[in-house]
Design a protein that fits this description.
- It comes from Runella aurantiaca.
- With 233 residues, the chain is an alpha+beta fold.
- It has one domain (4-227): Glutaredoxin, CATH 3.40.30.
- The chain has helices at 16-32, 58-66, 69-85, 102-113, 117-130, 138-147, 152-160, 165-177, 200-212; strands spanning 4-11, 37-44, 56-57, 97-98, 182-183, 185-188, 192-195, 226-227.
- The strands form three sheets. The chain has a four-stranded mixed sheet with strand order 2-1-6-7. The chain has a two-stranded antiparallel ribbon with strand order 3-4.
- Helix 1 (16-32) packs across helix 9 (200-212), helix 2 packs across helix 3 and helix 4 packs antiparallel against helix 5 (117-130).
Length: 233
């Protein structure tokens, strides 16, 4: 029997480093899949929980967060360059609406119940960062969800109601209790932590080591992340 690696990934839909980290981890999993079995699960995090339901202008929000338009341009160019190296085509300049991700996380939770969480997470990341989709629009999100095979009626119930709210809020609270203030954040075999969008090479080195020993509690490393406390992303 192959050694088993359970990886919980704390992330937010609007976190660019989470998408970059997703690709890097996937490359490591692909290279290790013949020797290990993997169980991947996404856990919720909100970088901007106070964003209004109708969303807010992405550029205005980020210019205010970074302090100047020059700094904004510098950061999005740097992040887009890193993303391109991982095969991702970010189009941050044309992403106009930043959503409140609470409802999107509830839909990711529903997708998990249907065995389609990974597909839903990938769809949201691609829609937001590469296709500049406005994720505040119910019909748009409904189309994305049904595109991966989720039931339209059930999805609409999530989007216009409160389905999964209690469960989501509990998860968000638990993640805060763990001290997670930046994402992506990886919890491996329940206790071993990796912080930030680490290079594929680090995962290739760390995952086999973790599989061979008892989990430990201290983080193994820290890398690029989106931080709720400093606003740096």
């Amino acid at each position: 029997m192959k050694p088993h690696l359970k990886i919980d990934i704390v992330s937010d839909v609007v976190c660019p480093w989470c998408y970059i980290g997703k690709r890097r981890l996937e490359k490591a999993v692909e290279q290790l899949k013949d020797d290990y079995t993997f169980e991947l699960r996404y856990l919720p995090f909100q970088l901007s929980p106070d964003t209004p339901a109708e969303g807010e202008n992405t550029k205005e929000r980020l210019v205010a967060k970074f302090g100047s338009e020059d700094r904004y341009n510098q950061i999005i160019q740097q992040v887009s360059g890193v993303a391109a190296a991982e095969g991702l085509r970010f189009d941050l300049e044309n992403q106009t609406v930043s959503p409140n991700t609470h409802t999107l996380h509830r839909l990711i939770g529903y997708a998990q119940q249907q065995g389609k969480q990974l597909e839903m997470v990938e769809t949201f990341f691609k829609a937001y960062f590469e296709d500049t989709v406005d994720l505040t629009q119910t019909e748009t999100v409904l189309q994305l969800a049904t595109g991966i095979g989720l039931d339209a009626e059930k999805v609409r119930e999530v989007l216009v109601g409160n389905v999964g709210t209690e469960e989501l809020d509990k998860q968000l609270y638990q993640n805060r209790l763990m001290g997670v203030s930046g994402v992506p954040y990886y919890i491996i075999n329940d206790k071993y932590a990796v912080s930030g969008a680490q290079p594929t090479e680090l995962f290739l080195e760390a995952l086999p080591e973790i599989a061979l020993k008892a989990p430990i509690q201290a983080p193994v490393a820290a890398g690029e992340a989106c931080d709720i406390e400093t606003g740096v992303c």
